[in-house]
Amino acid sequence: MLNRFLRATLVALALTTTAHAQDSGFDSPTIVILGDSQIPFGSGPVFLDFFENIKSHCPPTDQQRKNLEVLADMKVAVIGVRSTSLHSWTATMGKAKGAICDVDPKWKVNAGTYGFINTTGNKYKQIGQGDAYQFCKMDKSAFQVMFRPDYYDPKLILLSFLGNSAKRWANDYDKALEDVAKMNAQLPAGVPCIFMTTAPSYSKKITDLRIKAQANVERAFAETGSQCSFVKGATPETVAANQGNRKYFRVNKSGKVKDPYHPNTKAAKNFFMIAMDDICTAVYDQIENAMPELAQNP
Which of 206-225 are b and which e, b meaning 16 or more Cβ less than 10 Å from the residue's Cβ? Predict the structure, then answer.
């Protein structure tokens, strides 16, 4: 009886917070970028700058400039949730979903957010708290709750994950296939989408595992016919830039790297410079594919 009462209470709370998000007049971002802890640890501001100023980073042709009008207002939202992976966003229950919705016991907040949805100047937020972060509802995944026409209705989605799924994808291709298939089913149909794996780590051992995982998830994107373009974050050039490079990672007082997993902001800027052509190509390909009427009427 008590469990039934608690469940009913939680459902009522979820409905109340969702209704509040809708009643508050929440205005959807035009571009939504979702990722893991690499975003709050370094890449968040770089993602924001890149997409807010995409015309200068990716100089368009006349036709591409016309296609870009779909993103004209450039309201960019960047959200990075620590200890999450792609399947965290499609899970409807359990530990994977909890990575998004549970309050971190140590830091008390689980996400770093930037741009259009963050007007407070404090980059640290808790998913589930605040009008812009109502992604947690019983028996629904974060994607299912988030991507409603009356809530998040973006014109471009970019997903950036790898590290927390490295073992899962490297050791079991079927898991990679399952995760991509669930993502395909839950993303809003027809919306331009890019999936980019995260930047390489300081450690060769960590990066080697991630490259194996990256190969499996890239294969899964191709096999499922995903609507998303796939961009490799780990390439010979980005690995050469990050691997063993102490200036791109946090160090302790003795100068030893204390966090080999998260490149800093300086590293993120260099990563985007190296990967810029691939990212720009993916953006324009996606927008053109989603807007055939513009391609036919320049």
Answer: bbbbbbebbbbbbbbbeebe
